[in-house]
Automatic annotation (TrEMBL), chains A, B, C, D:
<protein>
    <recommendedName>
        <fullName>5'-nucleotidase SurE</fullName>
        <ecNumber>3.1.3.5</ecNumber>
    </recommendedName>
</protein>
<dbReference type="InterPro" id="IPR036523">
    <property type="entry name" value="SurE-like_sf"/>
</dbReference>
<dbReference type="GO" id="GO:0008254">
    <property type="term" value="F:3'-nucleotidase activity"/>
</dbReference>
<dbReference type="InterPro" id="IPR002828">
    <property type="entry name" value="SurE-like_Pase/nucleotidase"/>
</dbReference>
<dbReference type="GO" id="GO:0000166">
    <property type="term" value="F:nucleotide binding"/>
</dbReference>
<feature type="binding site">
    <location>
        <position position="39"/>
    </location>
    <ligand>
        <name>a divalent metal cation</name>
    </ligand>
</feature>
<comment type="similarity">
    <text>Belongs to the SurE nucleotidase family.</text>
</comment>
<dbReference type="GO" id="GO:0008253">
    <property type="term" value="F:5'-nucleotidase activity"/>
</dbReference>
<keyword id="KW-0547">Nucleotide-binding</keyword>
<dbReference type="Pfam" id="PF01975">
    <property type="entry name" value="SurE"/>
</dbReference>
<dbReference type="InterPro" id="IPR030048">
    <property type="entry name" value="SurE"/>
</dbReference>
<feature type="binding site">
    <location>
        <position position="9"/>
    </location>
    <ligand>
        <name>a divalent metal cation</name>
    </ligand>
</feature>
<keyword id="KW-0479">Metal-binding</keyword>
<dbReference type="GO" id="GO:0046872">
    <property type="term" value="F:metal ion binding"/>
</dbReference>
<feature type="binding site">
    <location>
        <position position="91"/>
    </location>
    <ligand>
        <name>a divalent metal cation</name>
    </ligand>
</feature>
<comment type="function">
    <text>Nucleotidase that shows phosphatase activity on nucleoside 5'-monophosphates.</text>
</comment>
<feature type="domain" description="Survival protein SurE-like phosphatase/nucleotidase">
    <location>
        <begin position="3"/>
        <end position="185"/>
    </location>
</feature>
Length: 258, 258, 258, 258
């Protein structure tokens, strides 16, 4: 069983070290992770500058790129084999609801999924690494389970897991949930640099807007470990017909207009 | 009618200049775009360094960040009002099928959508800007139509549009399509630097794998302008039940397990 | 007569545009300048990442590197010939006294000098480009003079020129000066980012400490254009003997200790 | 006795770790070093983006900036006191002759010197860290000596030290030398990226041109540890008169010309 491990907080983050220790005996685990913090890097790939891969003292490899770069490079040449599972995390903070769109942790896992490999992204719901040992233990339980049991869906699949920062004894069961929704992000924060230039900082993510029962927000608030299966089909199939009507009157310049 | 215009090729790219000229008389159009090429930057946001906004000689504003940063900063404070439409592009190359996951052009539009504003991402299917005038004219037609007609869906909506690089007369009708799928990306390309270090470059996107009738690949290959409505719900609703069964046997450490 | 022109404020800065216009008819002038502002980049070279050279619309070429990178790449291959003179500037602000150690404007000129080519660095004493036309006219006068007259020194030579921001009619004569000295720089400026991290900013250069008659500070304060010939021999020849005595007692491990 | 230690290879480089271990008992030694490799960064300062200071697990502090940034920030606020000595290195490779102009190792030491603090830059003459223990032991000997003996010159002073990569027993005595000179650098190296863009790489430093007896090149080739006192007065005093004659004929526009 071959497992590729990455993250978005960088190869020296406590979260990836804890996750590595937790799952290392479940298979051949290789780490290819970003050199630096890549929070909110989404699925970004580095197209216009070269990537370098270095070996860290602890056997991890790190890349001067994004989470998706790490998985991409690993899968398209660096590893020399196709892993059975891509695991990402444990992230320093929640990736629930709309966070998944921006998350580098999810981006790393999704890159595996887009190459046809099952993948799991793990996050703690609060920043600061409290009870990281408990999160790592829960992560191990889920990885062990997906390796042991026939997956419920055709390959590949992609799971987004959020774990409350609680002692192991206080963590409740795994709960399969849909993603909730957040309110719009906070206002941009502006500061003036000593040179008199205005600096803008992206504000905090908005609070939960849809945190009804059945969502990841709801489950983790109760102490459950949320598990959300993701799929990556952005097409709004229900809307195809309506839009067809709207564009129908537009001119078709070409001869075969139709 | 207030329109925010951005892109991912940078504020000096021919695509955004052409699009601005094409739609400027349809409303109050403001440009906030990246300083540099941000291809494949997906929905990435810059959280850990400050963003600066500068005025270009032509009235555009540019930001030392990603496409999503530009729209985010514009909507959360820079503009001082909420635009009626966010438009992104015209991109230098296709954003079809899985490209949409990585695309900074789509990322900019999606940022508007996530703030509740209708948005359109425009791309030419080939790189090199050939027949950019025709693409801009087609973009104008669609923007005009969505401003004029009641949208078929509740707000917000998000359209991904790909325009073949053809003379205007050869372009066929707008065609509403689902996203196709691509094969996995090409192998990573490695080079050795003069210092003896191995440099890795992300390889080209894979060829179309699902380009059946009804897809954006199929429509644009025939000369149509593809229009794909997108939605951003990554939850795989159909898979919730199966995964619930799989995680059910896992231990619930906490007292309220269940 | 072949002239290579560079700067540190970037190829789009008013200073390099004005200088180009002022000297373009004095020879074949080619511009290879940094893409971005590189103030205070000293003689820094980019060793560990590749440099790209692009053509701007106005015929200038720009490089994603430092001022010294620009001149280095131009002289070691890009130009294909050896220019007769390297000119740098006009810089946005003074490069007097200790500033020359940090200055990218001087760094670009010094790179030419280290390749054996005479070089001149031009700066305005105040930021903001006021009376840039007068500075460019003065720069032209000096370039014309060094092209016309036999230089007083063996090749190569290196001149550091600072021009007060005054109308042409108010500028006094060129005055050859030594460099003055500045007091230590201002205290570092600290700010707290919205994420609670302390950010440090390099403070302003110190005020003049040695601005006696004969220095660049003194001359420019009176309205003169200061011209300081530089040489690059960092050895403190007068101190060699004293240090020899100090290290003499140290052990010589090797067999041929001497 | 308070010592500030920095380098240009980054805070995790073997050279700074070895130097720290070698001198830590000679005083209160604090490390403030760059986060990343900053070879050839000269005296560059970061003016236009904020610097962050982080604590490493081993007690070192690291900064996302240049060697000169590190020393600058330390001396203008971070340390809260004025150290008695600034030490930089041990560098991975020679800083002899013209190298000193580009060297980040020398740049860090020179920043201390410009703030009025004695400073020493240490380098090994070959890359690769062979016999680093011997170099560290030699560095300790010199630091011990300058702390123990009255310096031969008024404060501040600045030493540039190059140590052959030899076993301790084979290293010969410290030898006070002037800087040699190098031939011009090698030709720029060009490569084509997979996107078809030409990438340029700064070529290797040139071979020694002036390596006569009395130079650092000569001494280290014989196995000596070269010690070169530096001073930072770029004015070419001998040339002032000649240049005065050359500029004399130029027009003085201003009323007080003269």
């Amino acid at each position: 069983m071959k497992i590729l491990l990455s993250n978005d907080d960088g190869y020296r983050a406590p979260g990836i070290e804890a996750l590595y220790e937790a799952i290392r005996d479940l298979g051949d685990v290789e780490v290819v992770a970003p050199e630096h913090n890549n929070s909110a890097k989404s699925n970004a790939l580095t197209l216009h500058s070269p990537l370098y891969v270095h070996d860290a003292a602890n056997g991890f490899r790190y890349v001067n790129g994004t989470p998706a770069d790490c998985v991409h490079v690993a899968l398209t040449g660096l590893l020399g084999y196709t892993p059975d599972l891509v695991v990402s995390g444990i992230n320093n903070g929640a990736n629930m609801g709309d966070d998944t769109i921006y998350s580098g942790t999810v981006g790393a896992a999704m890159e595996g999924y887009l190459f046809g490999i099952p993948a799991i992204a793990f996050s703690q719901t609060q920043k600061g690494w409290s009870h990281l040992d408990a999160a790592a233990r829960k992560a191990r339980e889920l990885v062990q389970q997906v390796l042991a049991c026939p997956p419920p869906e055709a390959l590949p699949w992609l799971l987004n897991v959020n774990i409350p920062n609680l002692p192991y004894e206080e963590l409740k069961s795994f709960k399969v949930c849909r993603l909730g929704r957040r309110h719009a992000a906070e206002k941009v924060i502006s500061q003036t640099s000593p040179h008199g230039e205005t600096m803008y900082w992206i504000g905090a993510a908005g609070p939960a807007k849809d945190d009804a029962e059945g969502t990841d927000f709801h489950a983790t608030a109760l102490g459950h470990v949320s598990v959300t299966p993701l799929k990556v089909d952005l097409t709004d199939h229900d809307a195809l017909r309506g839009w067809s009507r709207l564009v129908a009157p537009l001119p078709a310049a070409g001869t075969g207009a139709g």
